[in-house]
Description:
Chain B has 271 residues and is mainly alpha-helical. Chain B has 15 helices and no strands. The N and C termini of chain C lie far apart (63 Å).
Amino acid sequence: xxxxxxxxxxxxxxxxxxxxxxxxxxxxxxxxxxxxxxxxxxxxxxxxxxxxxxxxxxxxxxxxxxxxxxxxxxxxxxxxxxxxxxxxxxxxxxxxxxxxxxxxxxxxxxxxxxxxxxxxxxxxxxxxxxxxxxxxxxxxxxxxxxxxxxxxxxxxxxxxxxxxxxxxxxxxxxxxxxxxxxxxxxxxxxxxxxxxxxxxxxxxxxxxxxxxxxxxxxxxxxxxxxxxxxxxxxxxxxxxxxxxxxxxxxxxxxxxxxxxxxxxxxxxxxxxxxxxxxxxxxxxxxxxxxxxxxxxxxxxxxxxxxxxxxxxxxxxxxxxxxxxxxxxxxxxxxxxxxxxxxxxxxxxxxxxxxxxxxxxxxxxxxxxxxxx
Amino acid sequence: xxxxxxxxxxxxxxxxxxxxxxxxxxxxxxxxxxxxxxxxxxxxxxxxxxxxxxxxxxxxxxxxxxxxxxxxxxxxxxxxxxxxxxxxxxxxxxxxxxxxxxxxxxxxxxxxxxxxxxxxxxxxxxxxxxxxxxxxxxxxxxxxxxxxxxxxxxxxxxxxxxxxxxxxxxxxxxxxxxxxxxxxxxxxxxxxxxxxxxxxxxxxxxxxxxxxxxxxxxxxxxxxxxxxxxxxxxxxxxxxxxxxxxxxxxxxxxxxxxxxxxxxxxxxxxx
Amino acid sequence: xxxxxxxxxxxxxxxxxxxxxxxxxxxxxxxxxxxxxxxxxxxxxxxxxxxxxxxxxxxxxxxxxxxxxxxxxxxxxxxxxxxxxxxxxxxxxxxxxxxxxxxxxxxxxxxxxxxxxxxxxxxxxxxxxxxxxxxxxxxxxxxxxxxxxxxxxxxxxxxxxxxxxxxxxxxxxxxxxxxxxxxxxxxxxxxxxxxxxxxxxxxxxxxxxxxxxxxxxxxxxxxxxxxxxxxxxxxxxxxxxxxxxxxxxxxxxxxxxxxxxxxxxxxxxxxxxxxxxxxxxxxxxxxxxxxxxxxxxxx
Lengths: 372, 271, 299
């Protein structure tokens, strides 16, 4: 188990991490999700011991590790650039952490080829390198230099280098962002499989919400150096705790519609069945939850259509000039642009946020009936 | 087309003029003194004889001069690496107070030609009774601002991830410097090495100042000892000696032209 | 006792940076301060005491008819070598750059020939020049004699000697400048020439003035600074060939500094020469940064 307890880190005037607390259960897969500059990579470096917090502490299995150096923490890290040593072969890249950890100076020197005990230890490490290489499918690459590898192969070497020393925690810093789309999907599954197979805790930093949602047990959405929401992927999607989280999570960008300044919902939602709150609010609706329905309570004119095969994206301009984005299934026959169209949405999918603080207002859904 | 012929002719003529001293040196180094002092001009020696070369090695201690050159250049180079590589690494890949100040000093130091420091350094070495030693020939050059500068530029171009990975892999900072950082900037290291060796192999100034013992003469100084002793009568062996003294640099240059030019051109950054 | 991570990290920094920093301070900065102070004294090597003499050393150097030679000769030498060496370096580079388009191997062979004097040990080559310029036996005067001319004593004629040394200086530095110009030429994007062609600046002459010369601005500046500091630093040829003579006709700053300091042991006076030499070098560097501020290259 890894506990991050009220960690703060500043670079000069700039507070990069502001009182961040998180817990990753033993063997779980935690994703740190956020846009660049939100502090997620800094947090990873603090866990790794490459940097020190200004306040707060990190505990692994209940033990404060502030005093331990990067090596002593026994964490492994996979970098976005893979950080393979260009002048060493793949086998040497994978074997280096083992050699540094388990072989003495003499074992590592050319003399190590002579002493029987050293030879034994050296061949042990080599055997382990081979085994790990086989487990990620790069046995045939061991003699190559990193420069001669493709992006996917480098990724596997980086994973092998992390795996070989059996660390207590795996830290992954945007490991998939340099891969092409197809390979990324494949590696996602492989990394999750590694998490299950090793039973170790994985902490995965990413700016890609699909990656975070699809891989992690729990996701911490980080915005501006704070944890905006910490929960399961389903919780993030279904009950985003703030307007910003709602904007960040989800494949299609969520549409926001502000209510009148005096309070309550925007008039176009009056028929949907969400109780009108008292203060000024913003409503968020995901395009995938807003669909054409002949009797739908929301009316507007069809403005633009994007056909994407499995689904159709619609831009609908409502009476007051507000544009809503909706989706329909791929076989839906759209009317001609400019004609009137009715849309429906389940009240449970309407996210109500306080217009000033951006915080989620929960009360809105209670007792509301569907009017789809 | 005629333009091209004129261009090629002019360039070849220019190159020939540049080479005249080298050709004449070679020619004289094979001639015996009768031929040298004869009034007829002949580029090609009457017969190819290595006598002058043998004389050069036996009459003066040319081997000794060459060995001194190797000792001094190697000594300087080793220390320059030992001092400047870790410093340059820390300046780029570590964060500590005073980093900017130290780099500022390095840049300021680049502006100071070695000659400016000669008098105080001579005084200090004299006080320490170190004149006429290898130490005196090596110590003033152990810390090369140019080396720090060159390595700093090279290290700054490397991804910091690489060094973080090495720290997680269990390498100490010292091990990172020599096992990861240095091998990754080998081209810069070679360029610097060539620059340093050429500069100190060819240097006369400092040897003239701190040594008076011919046994400590580096090649250029040795040539002068040779010339002054023979007072101009033994031209053939003298030319043979100059051929041998410049040979390591010329051969090195011809074998690794690109690296040589890189190294010496980079040296222009030095004050 | 185990040190905290912070203190271990500080110790590591000191271990990495400390030796070079200490060496730099002891071997460069302290000597510069000492030499500046010594230039205001009459200190002699080996003397037990010294007096502060104010600007005396500088006054002697710049006003005494013989002592003045070191400064004036250095400036004359530089005034010849700098423009000639830059101009020839540029011409050769342009020629070789052009030649390399069609016959790269031939061009690189010629380049090696021009660069050879840069790599060769200058002292050794100066001895060879002595042979070439020998009044009676030298190749040059023998050639002149063959043409019925009486060649002068190149290195012992008071009026000639400085120019002879300047020619050797040019011979030695042309290749270096050529290499820098070649690098500058290679960095000019070829589409600029295409653009110049479309704009009607197609002829070689126009191309040079509209594209090549402006684009070479930074290189030219760099080359000028290097050639200038190299010229101010001239020492090896003087020490080998003339020892400043005859009658100080080829005395230059660095050689005078060596002679006054280490032959006559006048450390105070030698320090003043050193400081003048240092100021000249700094002046050139300051000019460079001054020009760079104004952006020499493409506006």
